[in-house]
Amino acid sequence: MRISLKRIMEQQDMQGQYYDLGKDFSNFRRTIDGADAQIKERFEQTIGQQLTGKRIRAQASRGYKQYVKTYEFDVARISLDDYYDNYVVVAQDNTTPKPKEYFLKAGYKIQILGPSTGQPSPQKGGDPKMQKPQVQQPPTPKTNPDAAQSQPMVPPPKPIKEEGHDTDTYDAYGIDAIEQDVKKWIPDLLKKPETPVREFIKKLGWMKKLENGKSIAMYQVTLPSDVLKAPLSQQALRDILTNSSKMSGTISTEFELKDITPSETNDMWTIWIKKTMADTTSI
Asked: Which residues, in sequence order, are CB contacts of 275 under 8 Å at separation 6+?
């Protein structure tokens, strides 16, 4: 069998070559994520045009998979947030010093009462006739707050049960709140500090109030390696988060690095952050 000189040269040129499938696949995933972000933004605008700046009465909950009842409130902003791979419609009400988030129940029609009034939502929601019957919750067992703090903080292993019947429930920690936290330090890690930090936040976090007056929040951010100006290290991140911890008024806030995990191809870093908030007046 004769083989042409051209074929022999091609074979020699190809010997020792490798194809980095992980790199191209990561670029594919990033493209898909970018397309998802554009679709998400478009529908946020569509829903926001109907509800932003309005006073509404809607079936909603104050946390992911919590009790659903009728609330009446002003809508300042609409976002579609990914919570454990489930998208939820979150309406933000800014009529109180600390903005409130309402998780809208998509299966019910929303009543538009008129333009925003600037008044906070009544504590018990809207028209009692429209509310679901209240279900008696079993008492929450008391826990040792010191023991709770000493345990490793991990996200709930599964979504919280419908209607909040789980005795160990968590509130959602919103995308906006995470963005406010991380925009203080993420730009220092980037080649382009002006990059919007919101694109590194893929899902909501969670938070829980302890019996000692403290609240603990957990959330994650994902940072592609190619946007970083230097490789990440645990010690460097711990130092950065320590600098972000602050004392403001009567509220003490502390940030702590719980985990940092590279992807298999080292092109993406997943960072878990624990935030502790304490009312110093109750300590």
From this structure: 173, 181, 207, 216, 217, 218, 219, 253, 254, 255, 256
